[in-house]
Design a protein that fits this description.
Helices cover about 50% and strands about 15% of the residues. It is built from 13 helices and nine strands. The strands form two sheets. Strands 6-5-7-8-9 form a five-stranded mixed β-sheet, sandwiched between helices. A four-stranded parallel β-sheet has the order 2-1-3-4, with helices on both faces.
Length: about 250
């Protein structure tokens, strides 16, 4: 039987800040029975789209579409970038009939990582161990644009030794929001502080999330405030990369 071909959209942050997430994502996708390819890629275009640079966002969308449309699936270890491809590429290219059709075709086969593993490949559990107390942070894009909620929790609950606790307000934004953190830093910091306080109340020592941007924002804020909370991308946990140093942990 032919193995499905998956194009891994690694994301800029993973490439520049945490390559281990990309390797972990590739490992998980391969173990689900797929072949993984990482074509030459650029930014998904979300910063341009969010700042109103629509023409630039459309150009980046065209580059991504051309690079990934040959694969059976596009998988992204980020609800944010996945949401851009799936929800906003058709909007960015709405006035270009040819590219709109290609954007819609790509959107239909684009998935956030845990969503792909659970809903497309039927993965119910992973055979990994990681001794830690963790809470899971849902990114806004994963929740609202990709509809991802239960999938990461289902997979994390199968990790031996991992004690997973729920935040009191799991659907509250962490305050990152890409350009939001730049435009409104004081509000962003307050939102991060609220999220960190929520995490501390659970007794967790680690915040796990499917979006690296959220993690960098939260753990960076934790370090500046002298808190010992660490962060891990869910792909690293599920792929058994617990020996990879976590984000933060040096107050």
């Amino acid at each position: 039987m032919t193995r499905p071909l998956v194009g891994l959209f690694a994301t800029c942050l993973v490439d520049l800040m945490r390559p281990s997430v990309g390797f972990a994502a590739a490992k998980l996708i391969e173990e689900s029975g797929c072949e993984v390819f990482v074509p030459e890629q650029t930014c998904c275009g979300q910063p341009a789209w969010n700042s109103g640079a629509d023409a630039h966002a459309a150009d980046l969308a065209r580059q991504t579409i051309a690079a990934f449309e040959e694969y059976d699936y596009v998988v992204v270890p980020s609800g944010s970038c996945a949401g851009m491809i799936k929800r906003h590429y058709p909007e960015a290219l709405t006035n270009d009939a040819d590219w709109l059709q290609r954007a819609s075709a790509l959107a239909s086969k684009t998935h956030e990582l845990t969503q792909f593993l659970v809903k497309v490949r039927g993965i119910k559990s992973v055979a990994e161990r990681c001794a830690m107390k963790a809470c899971y942070h849902d990114s806004c894009s994963s929740l609202r644009e990709m509809g991802v909620k239960r999938e990461p929790r289902q997979l994390l609950e199968s990790v031996e030794g991992l004690a997973l606790t729920e935040l009191a307000e799991p659907e509250q934004c962490c305050g990152f929001g890409g350009l939001f953190a730049v435009k409104y830093p004081e509000i962003s910091e307050r939102m991060a502080d609220d999220k960190l306080a929520d995490a501390e109340k659970t007794g967790a020592d680690t915040i796990v999330s499917g979006d690296l941007g959220c993690l960098l924002h939260l753990i960076g804020r934790a370090e500046r405030r002298g808190k010992a909370l660490t962060g891990r991308h869910i792909a690293e946990v599920l792929a058994g990369m617990s020996d990879t140093p976590p984000l933060g942990g040096k107050p």
